[in-house]
Design a protein that fits this description.
The chain is α/β, with parallel strands linked by helices. It contains six helices and eleven strands. A seven-stranded mixed β-sheet has the order 3-2-1-4-5-11-10. Strands 6-7-8-9 form a four-stranded antiparallel β-sheet, with no helix packed on it. It starts with a helix and ends with a strand. The chain binds S-adenosylmethionine. S-adenosylmethionine binds at residues 3, 39-41, 44-45, 59-62, 65, 84-86, 100-101, 103, 106-107.
């Protein structure tokens, strides 16, 4: 249901603003080795990383997202496997495996997230690293009634709403971007099962990896109680 044709079209040219910092950070870790992105999407990070001369492979479940990636410059050069990144369904070993923009949380059970860490560990070179960029769930605990509706855009002929509900017991976030216009209603649903950074660290330990670095962002800001996201680097 998520990451379909509509979402992929919207996502094609989306930029968050910290892409160059992310790419510089990842480039350093890849060194002279190759990289694998879990949930490569439309190549927001993979394409500029590959443009720096690094071999970047990808995995994604959504053919629609990969179709958009293929339309971008360099997008036809990358090897992308259609499949579930919890399985890491590739044969090579990588110096760098990374999953960004909360995509790890698209695995909706703790079991699948642990399985992902285990399969990543099996595909890392001995000096390889696994980088996870994800939200810090603290903001969810400030929501009123564990939910919100936010008006993203209000125009004369269309309204775009962000609708979110949080279940602290299951650590689930259900969200949809809802476009109401004369053409009708369009929904872009996405579900996430979030983990605190400490839970991710334990998943890494189960998979035989250890936390090496944790930053509050791609510019290597210190990670502290005000951090809204974390960039965590795991290795052996
Ligand atoms: C939020 S998008 C991020 C895309 C890209 N990494 C970026 O930062 O712009 C998440 C991507 O992960 C993919 N995805 C979600 N769950 C997946 C799974 N279990 N296996 C493979 N891909 C998955 C989606 O299809 C989507 O392309």
């Amino acid at each position: 249901m998520s990451f379909g044709v509509d979402y992929a079209r919207m996502d094609r040219d989306f930029q968050r603003g910290d892409e160059m910092a992310a790419v510089a950070f990842l480039e350093q870790l890849a060194g002279s080795g190759s990289a694998l992105e879990l949930g490569i999407g439309t190549g927001r990070i993979a394409l500029p990383l590959a443009a720096r001369g690094i071999r970047v492979d990808g995995i994604d479940l959504s053919q629609a997202m990969v179709d958009q990636l293929r339309t971008k410059p360099g997008g036809d050069q990358l090897s992308v496997t259609i499949g579930d990144f919890a399985d890491v369904p590739v044969s090579d070993a990588y110096r760098l495996i990374y999953v960004v923009f909360n995509s790890l949380f698209n695995l909706l059970t703790q079991e699948d997230q642990v399985r992902c860490f285990e399969n990543v560990a099996a595909h890392l070179t001995s000096d390889g690293t696994f980088v996870v960029e994800a939200l810090v769930p603290a903001f969810l605990y400030q929501l009123r009634n564990n939910q919100y509706v936010e008006a993203e855009t209000i125009e004369v002929d269309a309204v775009r709403l962000d609708v979110l509900r949080h279940d602290p017991a299951t650590q689930m976030i259900e969200e949809s971007h809802v476009l109401l216009s004369e053409a009708g209603v369009r929904l872009n649903p996405v579900a996430q099962r979030y983990s605190w950074p400490s839970e991710l660290d334990l998943m890494a330990r189960i998979a035989g990896l250890r936390l090496k670095q944790r930053w509050g962002g791609w510019h290597q800001e210190p990670f502290n109680s005000n951090s809204r996201l974390h960039v965590s680097v795991y290795g052996r």
